[in-house]
Amino acid sequence: MIREEAADLAARIRAGAIAPSQAVQASLKQIAHWQTLTNSFSEVWGPEATRAARGADTKIESGAKLGPLFGVPIAVKDVFDVAGHPTTGCSEAYADNIAATDAVLVTALRDAGAILVGKTNMHELAMGGTNLVSSCGPTRNPFATDRITGGSSGGSAAALATGVVPLALGTDTGGSIRNPASMCGLFGLKPTQGRLSTDGVMALAPSLDCPGPMAYSARDLGLLWSVLAGSPEKSVRVSRVGLLGGYFAVGMHPTVRAAVAATANALAETGIVVVEKNGTEGIQQINDAWRDFVRMEMVEAHPELAERRGRLAPATAEHVTEGLKLVEAGEQHALRRRPREARGWFERRFEGVDLLLAPSAPYPAPSALADEVPVGGGRSIDVHLGGTSRFTRVVNFSGAPALTIPTGVTDEGLPIGVQLIARWGAEDVLLTVARELEASFDRFRSPAPPG
């Protein structure tokens, strides 16, 4: 399997070495091969993408100015509005929800010249971390198809890992970009809360939802980020990184623990000072409130779901029922304190450092049949009750940006990732370090699945 970076593909298109129609046809051919194995797409738009690519061929011949992603095939998660297509969140409750206009970020992709080839599968309404619960059927991990991709942006992750597209959009409310990126060996960025527009993006919890870029190289991640953010990427000097301990140092698989340590060592080898940071002092209580907070905002954003619970998967319907109870009990005020508390907690940890280092997913991709994953010391972490996001969701509460980077594979060939967390608005710091690690060490390059 050959995976070509978007930056290289765009350069070849501009040089006339390959036509956009050829690039899109190659993508569609790869989708046809991998879809039966991974089920990464909820919709594939072969005829529409082909027409758009032929139009792009003509544009090249006319000598028109070309955008930075001109002719590059791309996919978006099934929460982004694309005019004329359903936005379902992979839920039967929204099967008839046809978008009238493009989401703001989809418009940005089109303006940059990208060609949309389809929408990617996801955990129903983004309320879950496995991608097993979906009206489109479960998404399967290309590194081992009996294992999960992580979620809820698991379809985007599987599509990227297999190289059927070099770029994709996901969303992250509690880890939904970072965890599938970790389990599929990718780079995935959760931006600062509010940095990117959510106009035309189906909500889960509006005050936490973050659309963001995913890619299989740090360079491509930066390229896509610059298109979405509307500003060029900058290199930033990084001198000190804080390694989070306490809560962030327990409850993880030994391979993840080793990956975090290896990342700290690699950062030190590049000349960055790594210091330990206390990761306890109230973080557990803040973290535990995430599920109730999201359930509350979910039912506020989707009042119609109270009457549509029969069209939801049982687990999703339970989230709606519990969210309605919280609203009826007047819990909103107490829950809305949690983001402020989380921001204060992280502000204290950022003192004296440029970044924080922590695990992303607590384990490599589990079996799709597993309920728990043993992590050593007689302890297990659940798979379906929020365990996948135990290290990521509190970052959403704080609003800070975070980036998952690949850090190698297990003896079974399963990818592992860790996350870097930056101050608010400091995405360029994250992207700088990701590029430096990728360029300097093989283990920080995205692995390709077998086949």
Explain what the structure shows.
The protein is 37% helix and 16% strand. By secondary structure, the chain is of the alpha/beta class. It has two domains: 6-229, Amidase signature (AS) domain (Amidase signature (AS) enzymes, Alpha-Beta Complex), CATH 3.90.1300.10; 240-287 and 336-444, Amidase signature (AS) domain (Amidase signature (AS) enzymes), CATH 3.90.1300.10. It has an eleven-stranded mixed sheet, with helices on both faces. β10 (372-376) and β11 form a beta hairpin. α2 (20-38) packs antiparallel against α3 and α7 runs antiparallel to α15 (427-440). The longest helix is centred in the first third of the chain and has 19 residues, at 20-38. The protein is globular and about 60 Å long. It starts with 5 loop residues before the first helix and ends in an 11-residue tail after the last helix.
Helices and strands, with pairings:
Elements: H1 6-15, H2 20-38, E1 41-44, H3 46-62, E2 73-77, H4 104-111, E3 115-120, H5 154-161, E4 167-172, H6 178-184, E5 187-190, E6 210-215, H7 218-229, E7 240-244, H8 254-269, E8 273-277, H9 283-288, H10 290-301, H11 314-328, H12 332-335, H13 338-349, E9 355-359, E10 372-376, E11 379-382, H14 393-398, E12 402-409, E13 415-422, H15 427-440
Parallel strand pairs: 2-3, 2-4, 7-8, 7-9
Antiparallel strand pairs: 1-3, 4-6, 5-6, 5-12, 9-13, 10-11, 12-13
CATH class of the largest domain: Alpha Beta
What is the chain-wise order of helices and strands?
Answer: HHEHEHEHEHEEHEHEHHHHHEEEHEEH
The CATH superfamily of the largest domain bears the name: Amidase signature (AS) domain
CATH-defined topology of the largest domain:
Amidase signature (AS) enzymes
Helical run tally: 15
Count of the domains: 2
Largest sheet strand order = 1-3-2-4-6-5-12-13-9-7-8
Low-confidence stretches: none
